[in-house]
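hi! just following up on the protien thing from before. the input was this:
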Amino acid sequence: MNKREKIPTTKRWVVKIGSALLTNDGKGLDAAAIAGWVQQMAQLRNQGIEIVLVSSGAVAAGMRRLGWNSRPTEIHQLQAAAAVGQMSLIQTYEVEFQRYGLLTAQVLLDHDDLSSRQRYLNARSTLKTLVNLRVIPVINENDTVVTDEIRFGDNDTLGALVANLIDADLLVILTDQKGMYDSDPRSNPDAKLLSEIAADDPSLEKMASGGGALGRGGMITKVRAARVAARSGADTIIVGGRIENALWRIAAGEDLGTFLWAAQQPQAARKRWLSGHLQTRGTLVLDDGAVRVLRDQGKSLLPIGVKEVRGDFTRGDMVICIDSTGKEIARGLVNYHADEAKKIIGKPTHQIAEILGYQDDKELVHRDNLVIS
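and the predicted 3d structure came back as:
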């Protein structure tokens, strides 16, 4: 069976565009190319595909505006270039998306935002809210302040982490190559384009090559990003950004680029990821009704179904849910601090704001962040 057949049924994409494409190999932001990608993404959004954009290019764009011909090595110069370039980058996207009646939102993240469970939940909630509002989040690494990511990070990996974060169906990595080859096409004219292969295929790393002068990654980072995306069940396509109407044609199921498919379905993969959180910070004792709802109906855990809170945890920590006999029912990422949870347990959702003075979430643990034991 052709694994690409499911692409036309996907509903949520993360699209990552690299520096070499955005800056036309260092010549400044390629406004015409950006306009083309935005047109495609806008049409996909209007067809019902939710789009989250991960865009490189801030440092490269800043270098151009500052008149620098080569990428600096001093960290503060890189930070300055990122700060200058981010302004023009986000402005360009905003103007182009407005042509199609779509709002954009700038979101700057670093890897710590996605490794801290509390910040993970905050970022997830914000991005999902933006998507539900038909806003296009434009995400980049926060290069202005994060020194390690400027030296070692890459937006291929960030794109994959965002795919995990929002439960994306597909990660599309637009690059300056047509896709991934079995060897480097720049040095081997007989290199063959790979059509589709499992993201966890052990032969992939041997076939991947190094990055270019502007980007910090290369094909090897794209392979690794595909494997990260696959943790939550997202498939990945590596495809040439300069191929005419590449995004539309991918959505239609055309055989473009290289399709790296995930071994597990998204929900099963995400539950497996959650169950791997071995360190728990607290316990929620459920009433019989909540136990039945979690086990039999697959719903979220609401405060009204909790009888007791044990332990000292913060928002985003992993907690265990047990029944009245002490048997573990589930575990998941909690949406409130322990002292807040103690105040709202046994209460209906509409009283949360009145009790706490605010309401982050109506669920104590959302079903997307819950795995049955």
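The chain has two domains: 3-271, 276-372.
The first strand starts at residue 12 and ends at 17.
cheers
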